[in-house]
Design brief:
Layout lengths: L1 H14 L1 H12 L12 E2 L5 E3 L11 H4 L10
Antiparallel strand pairs: 1-2
């Protein structure tokens, strides 16, 4: 059984490795054109909640995205 698992691992790594690497890359990297400038969103007190900012690139590291916990503001 160990020989079979080692053989399968070698096959996946060395024979199919490049194919699976390319598939993984294409699933993780996507280019998306988004519409520019949507305008500012204000709260009921007239303070800006969300504003449009011009940037060339936006990216996120999934490892760190769950570290931020958003809290609701008290009413």
């Amino acid at each position: 059984m160990m020989i079979g698992l080692t053989g399968r691992l070698g096959y996946l790594q060395f024979v199919k490795g490049k194919e699976y690497s390319q598939k993984a890359y294409s699933q993780q990297m996507k280019n998306k054109i988004i519409s520019p400038r949507r305008g500012t969103i204000y709260d009921r007190n007239g303070e800006a909640l969300a504003i449009s900012v011009s940037v060339d690139t936006v990216s996120i590291n999934p490892r760190f995205s769950m570290l931020f916990k958003w809290k609701r503001s008290p009413k």
